[in-house]
Amino acid sequence: MNYKITSNSDMDTIELAQNIESEKFPNMVICLEGDLGSGKTLFAKAFAKSMGIVDNITSPTFNIIKEYDGEEGCKLFHMDVYRLSESKEDMGIEEYFTKKGITIIEWADMISDILPKNRLDIKIKIVGENRRVFLITPHGEKYEDLCERVL
Fold first, then answer.
1. Structure letter (DSSP) for residue 123
2. What is the DSSP letter of 81?
3. For residues 150 and 128, what is the distance between their CA atoms, to the nearest angstrom?
4. Taking each helix axis from N to C terminus, what angle separates 40-50 and 10-21, rounded to the nearest 10 degrees?
5. Furthest CA-CA distance within the chain
6. pTM for the whole thing?
7. CA atoms within 13 A on the CB side of 33
8. pLDDT tens digits, residue range 22-49?
9. What totals of helices (H) and strands (E) does the chain contain, helices first?
10. Which residues of the chain are under the pLDDT cut of 70?
């Protein structure tokens, strides 16, 4: 089942991220897709803040992967794979999917061939100056259950 959520403001996007974070689990993978300025990093920042992360969350465009420590020892692995070339296998990205943390990937469609089978896909479409449509597709039972609880 697919879900469609309309965000009319940054606050709506933040609330969506917080709701999804409230149901987080080890090895959770969230794949974000959307044009520049659609709200991918805003979503990641809100999710991180809900995890108790106080660091300034920025898009890891040049680092590719940034790691943050959340409350209760839960780690957040924030990736921006926009600048990756064919060498993605050499970076060990797939190892992060089983490190017991939460992985959020911006521009996930760039590495679709190595994404885990079970994940949450979120496509963000810009439909107005402050309006976004989130198309959410859960892959796997845990993600389907999460969507049923929070969306």
1. E
2. -
3. 25
4. 50
5. 40
6. 0.94
7. 12
8. 999 999 999 999 999 999 999 999 999 9
9. 3, 7
10. 60-62, 85-90
